[in-house]
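Worked Example 4.2. Consider the chain below.
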Amino acid sequence: MTDELHIGDRIADLAAAHPEQVAIIVVGPRGEETAMTWSELDQRANAAARGLEQEGVRDDTVVGVALPRASSTPWRSSGPGSWARPSCP
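Applying the procedure from the previous section yields the following structure tokens:
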């Protein structure tokens, strides 16, 4: 057991503490913005994790992520989880 905090654990902690606070705002290919709360982000992360587990992925498995070109549009995070910001517009 390590003292590492995985991103899924951090999202779960923030969802418990601030469930209705906006976690991220995704900017779509036409400039439309979609907000997602910590609770919604946690639910989606858990669903993705369950799907990966069903495919045999375990804690030590490396998983590649392929995103459509439109996903390179910058998005920003807000609130207590602003550490999860791949791009700062």
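The beta strands are 22-27, 33-37, 76-77. Residues 7-60+67-81 form one domain. Compare this with Example 4.1 before moving on.
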